[in-house]
Amino acid sequence: MSKPTGSPAIVFDHATIAYGRTAALERVHGTVRAGEIVALVGPNGAGKSTLIKAVLGLVPVVSGSVTVLDRRPAEARRQVAYVPQADTLDPDFPISVAQVVLMGRYRRIGWLRPPGRADRDAAAAALAAVGLEHRAADRFGLLSGGQRQRVLLARAIAAQPAVLVLDEPFNGVDAVSQEALLGAIRDLTARGAAVVVSTHDLGLAQVSCDGVCLLNRRQFGFGPPDAVLTPDTLRAAYGGAALELGDRGLILAHS
Q1: Beta strands 61-68; 219-223: pairing state
Q2: 3-class secondary structure per residue, the chain
Q3: Out of 112, 118, 195, 245, which residue is the most buried by the measure of CB atoms under 10 Å away?
Q4: CA triplet 3, 126, 110: central angle to 5 degrees?
Q5: Of 195, 183, 121, whose CA–CA distance to 150 is shortest?
Q6: What are the pLDDT digits (tens) for 101-131?
Q7: Which pLDDT belongs to residue 252?
Q8: Are the C-beta atoms of 153 and 128 separated by less than 8 Å?
């Protein structure tokens, strides 16, 4: 039995996205609802990051449309949080974990106003959600890669977004950090947020997500994992790669 979900948060209506005259991704069609986690999967260069940029309003949609919270993506940015693959924060910069998370509140309060008690409470709750409240006073750059990724997710959670977008958040993180990230994401969807996450981990997409958008320059499927992650659609999207059934689901084994 699937969990109940809410109203459409992101709607892709046969969207084609281009850089200049070159189409990077064609005719994506599907809906991400409030309370859902939808995975973007596909090989390198498939267009996952391009679709994320379209949700953020950073690249043009040349035909069809992308709608976020019933608005054009650029108009919805205040309610969208983004966790990039690699953050621009210099690990040598002397900033604490708590200060990084508090950055998530600046869009609400403005950069010139000092954070108040409510902002600090929201940041502390977000850090607790990823299991790193005990590292609040530590310098961000001293954390492991997985812990830094958890802090960046906490920064996004502190913004209290209606939509959360994550670009390959599980790359290179340890098992403990991956479970902490997934737990915090599930908590966010339980409160009604919609989550889009790009990943190369098909097993994770199959087990932990409500929906999957399978891409390789165009859409090969958009819907429940069991309906999209089939041997036939995966072979088509990944160019005939062989498939093995692992403990956590389908695993690609390139021949």
Answers
A1: unpaired
A2: CCCCCCCEEEEEEEEEEEECCEEEEEEEEEEEECCCEEEEECCCCCCHHHHHHHHCCCCCEEEEEEEECCECHHHHHHHEEEECCCCCCCCCCCCEHHHHHHHHHHHHHCCCCCCCHHHHHHHHHHHHHCCCHHHCCCEHHHCCHHHHHHHHHHHHHHCCCCEEEEECCCCCCCHHHHHHHHHHHHHHHHCCCEEEEECCCHHHHHHHCCEEEEECCEEEEEECHHHHCCHHHHHHHHCCCEEEEECCEEEEECC
A3: 195
A4: 115
A5: 183
A6: 999 988 777 666 777 889 999 999 999 999 9
A7: 54
A8: no
CA distance 222 to 38: 9
HSE (CB half, 13 Å, CA atoms) of 245? 3
Measured in degrees and rounded to the nearest 5, phi and psi for residue 179 equal -65, -35
Per-residue pLDDT tens for 123-145? Answer: 999 999 999 999 999 999 999 88
Find where tokens 């281009």 sit. Answer: 18
Task: Name the token pair of 212.
Answer: 């999957």
Query: Which of 27, 24, 23, 32 has the alpha carbon at shortest distance from 14?
Result: 27
